[in-house]
Amino acid sequence: MSRHRTSPSSLLAAAVDAAVAALDAVDLDLDADPEDPPSGAGVRLLVDGHELLVRILPVAYCTGQRALQLIADRGPNGVTLVVADKITTEAQQLLTDGGCSWLDRRGRLHLRAPGVRIDTDVPNQLSTAQPTGERPIRGRGGVTVAYWLCEHPERSLSPNRASAELGLAPSTISTAVRRLINAGVANDDGTGIFPELFWELAATWNPDQRWLAAAPDPGVARTADRAAPAWKRSGTPAAIAYGAAIPTAGGEPIVLYVPGPVDLSIAVRRFGSAQPGSGAAIVKVAPTRAVTAGIRANAPAPPDLDGWPAAPVLAVALDLAHDRTRGHQLLTDWNHPDAVWR
């Protein structure tokens, strides 16, 4: 079930509760002592009669990238305990090497403090997230924002400045970014956390598509205007053109992205409909207009695939993620310069 978090203060309070429960489970004397939420919270430990204040840093999902940020921001003094619903193996090692203690709410506590050396399983804590039955990436607006962040992995979105580019209201952008932050797949500054954001987007990447009886000819959608939206090719040939090592025997259906539902209807009328798995081509409506956008001035042209421009590498990777038998491994092995999936 998909989940999201409420406010930062609620996340902090839940993290303190989780820390208290975990520390109590290992028989340490303690006293919960929340401080001002913006600066964190403290749990006072009594170890051999000595009082020790452990600072709580709550995060939703701790990756290696987030761990490095937390280590840099933790301050020179005191004991820091990072509490997260999930802490990746890489992040656990980085936090340990960086002098941070951590609690993975799935059931693991690592605590280092004067007189205290603990690295043990603890009872699994309930997630700080609240079930909603909905993913944090919702609707075309959510997909568009998540896709943009994946395309620009070191940048955050300005709702007002990006409104025209994305074709979304500033409020829609703000809401979409906040959901990603609350879900733990974006940082507090609005930049994406990778590869988690990519895989969250992949889980919602379900474009409307139709199988065609005959494969379209590139001339059907060709235009002299490089800046105009265009039909673009995805699938295995596109991934190979971008450097993915994918064995193929050929004979696969052509996979095309089109700008909108009207183009999809045109393709079905002109080239005929086919049963899934039996046609010569698959035509998909791009979930966000960035997939079929024209080429910007001074930007390099995408690879040419038998007369079709290749879809953006991100869209090709998102398609590959849906290959249940080999997609994840192929993406793991695909070391593209713009990879946000590894």
Describe the overall structure.
This protein is of the alpha/beta class and 342 residues long. It has three domains: 3-121, 3-Layer(aba) Sandwich (Trna Endonuclease, Chain: A, domain 1); 135-203; 207-333, no CATH class. It contains eleven helices and 17 strands. The strands form five sheets. A seven-stranded mixed beta sheet has the order 2-3-4-6-8-9-10, sandwiched between helices. A four-stranded mixed beta sheet has the order 12-15-14-13, with helices on both faces. Helix 9 links the parallel strand 14 and strand 15. The radius of gyration is 24 Å and the shape is elongated. The two termini are 24 Å apart. 40% of the residues are buried.
Write the layout of secondary structure elements.
Layout: E1 3-4, H1 8-25, E2 29-33, E3 41-47, E4 50-58, E5 61-62, H2 64-73, E6 79-84, E7 86-87, H3 89-97, E8 101-104, E9 108-113, E10 116-121, E11 130-131, H4 139-151, H5 159-166, H6 170-182, H7 196-204, E12 209-212, E13 232-234, H8 236-241, E14 254-258, H9 261-271, E15 281-285, E16 304-305, E17 308-309, H10 313-320, H11 327-333
Parallel strand pairs: 4-6, 5-7, 6-8, 14-15
Antiparallel strand pairs: 1-11, 2-3, 3-4, 8-9, 9-10, 12-15, 13-14, 16-17
Helix pairs in contact: 2-3, 4-6, 4-7, 5-6
